[in-house]
Specification:
By secondary structure, the protein is an alpha+beta fold. It has 4 domains: 83 residues, 2-Layer Sandwich (Uridine Diphospho-n-acetylenolpyruvylglucosamine Reductase, domain 2); 112 residues, Uridine Diphospho-n-acetylenolpyruvylglucosamine Reductase, domain 3 (2-Layer Sandwich); 110 residues, Alpha-Beta Plaits; 73 residues, Alpha-Beta Plaits (2-Layer Sandwich). It is built from 16 helices and 19 strands. The strands form 4 sheets. Strands 12, 13, 14, 15, 16, 17, 18 and 19 form an 8-stranded antiparallel sheet that branches. A 5-stranded antiparallel sheet has the order 5-6-10-8-9. Strands 1-2-4-3 form a 4-stranded mixed sheet, covered by helices on one side. The longest helix has 17 residues.
């Protein structure tokens, strides 16, 4: 047994917790739970991270980095007895409006960046649904997206520079000005390095935003309408999709006034600095939707627009009222295949006998089929259905994860998603960065 009291002596009592209650509370994320760690460390500085990594390496202990615990792939869950590095106290954040950047430690909650930048008429576009609890470190690990990713891009598109600690406990700072080694680390799910700080690009707040909701008779009509709007040239800031199950769950839980008789709903923002162009784009989207039988409802003001977006953000918590457990799938497919894919996934859910709902960032083909189940259900069959859904995505020319990551949930399935040479290249990169396999072991790679 390693001498964990030595780590306490080095970092201080307040930064290392060895009591069972604290350790148990750090064995889970939003979808899975794992081994009880031997210790939980709360670093406040890069130096604290360095000392923890070096201790873990000397003791031969695996290290698992954890932020807001909002992940949906088991990416932050301990797979063995080791150390959890809980970054929630690393919350230093500064805004430089002259350079249009934010410098954030990895424990900064995603929403805080835009909140701090807004007085300068700037904001940070990446906005995962969990943006009020997810952290910058987790966003970096998963290359998180969100409703704005179709037009504005994902986390990696906004990282200008980052500081990280390698598996040997050495500190590095990488910029993307000369080469993009940093791009290899973003989205590596904590398996290659421990991020400590990032310099993030900010964007000017658009002067005008317009919002509309469209309700369709069938889910296939909504998928076809989304594809049609983009085919006609629309580039909406947000283009989100909810099927009938999601609409009814949200309405039952929160009462936002959605049309519960509809088979599906699309929610759209257009934005920009030229009001006329923003209005024209919204009209183009509305016309494309109406061509597929939609009833279009335009938000009258900012308050109504916010109410509609609260409904979208409320999908995940609302589903808990249908069944206590859910497995949130995360696939991305070509937009031309959306109609086929949503139809096939619905059929799979009906055949398996589980309630299954679909929502997601349909503008870039990113769908989140959710399998709902209870304590008495066969969890093995739930995972079989999830794998069948992933295979639908692969057959359509898509990928098994759009933003949640491989983590634990899809680790065994990765071999079906990439060929053997690619998998070996992944393993070679892992060996180069972490030869002893101490950083987030048991994740990502089969």
């Amino acid at each position: 047994m390693p001498n964990l009291r030595a780590l306490v002596a080095e970092l201080g009592e307040g930064k290392v917790r060895l009591d069972l209650a604290d350790r148990v509370l750090h064995r889970y994320d939003a979808i899975a739970e794992g081994a009880i760690p031997l210790a939980v460390v709360y670093p406040e500085t890069t130096g604290d991270v360095v000392r923890t990594v070096r201790f873990a390496r000397a003791a031969g202990l695996p290290l698992f980095v954890r932020g807001g615990a909002s992940g949906l792939s088991g990416g932050a869950v301990p797979t063995a007895e080791g150390i959890v590095l809980a970054t929630n106290r690393m919350t230093r954040l500064s805004i430089d409006p002259s350079r249009r950047v934010a410098v954030a430690q990895v424990g900064v909650v995603t929403a805080w960046v835009s909140e701090r930048a807004r007085p300068h008429r700037l904001y940070y576009p990446p906005d995962p649904a969990s943006y009020r609890m997810s952290t910058i470190g987790g966003n970096l690990a998963e290359n998180a997206g969100g409703p704005q990713c179709f037009k504005k891009g994902v986390t990696g598109d906004y990282v200008l520079e980052a500081e990280f600690v390698d598996a040997g406990g050495e500190v590095h700072r990488l910029s993307r000005r000369a080469c993009d080694l940093l791009g290899l680390l973003i989205g590596s799910e904590g398996t290659l390095a421990v991020f400590t700080e990032a310099t993030l690009r900010l964007e000017p707040l658009p002067r005008h935003t317009r919002t509309l909701a469209a309700f369709f008779e069938r889910v296939e009509d909504a998928a076809a309408a989304a594809f049609e709007a983009i085919r006609r040239g629309a580039v909406p800031a947000k283009l989100e999709f909810l099927d009938r199950g999601c609409i009814r769950a949200v309405e039952a839980a929160f009462g936002y006034g959605l049309d519960t008789g509809a088979g599906a709903m699309l929610l759209v923002d257009t934005d920009g600095d030229d009001e006329e162009i923003v209005e024209e784009e919204l009209a183009l989207v509305a016309d494309a939707f109406k061509a597929h039988g939609a009833r279009v409802q335009r938000a009258r003001d900012a308050a109504e627009a916010e109410r509609l977006w609260q409904a979208r953000r409320g999908v995940s918590p609302a589903l808990g009222r249908i069944r206590p457990f859910k497995l949130n799938e995360d696939i991305a497919v070509p937009r031309s295949k959306l109609v086929e894919v949503v139809h096939r996934i619905r059929d799979l859910g009906e055949a398996a006998g589980f309630p299954l709902v679909q929502f997601g960032h349909i503008g870039d083909g990113n769908l989140h089929p959710n399998i709902l189940y209870g304590p008495g259900d066969d969890v093995e069959k739930v995972h079989e259905l999830a794998h069948a859904i992933a295979r639908v995505a692969l057959a359509a020319g898509g990928v098994i994860t759009g933003e949640h990551g491989v983590g634990l949930m899809k680790r065994a399935f990765l071999a079906e998603a990439v060929d053997r040479p690619t998998l070996e290249a992944f393993r070679a990169v892992k060996r180069a960065f972490d030869p002893e396999g101490l950083l987030n072991p048991g994740k990502l790679l089969p």
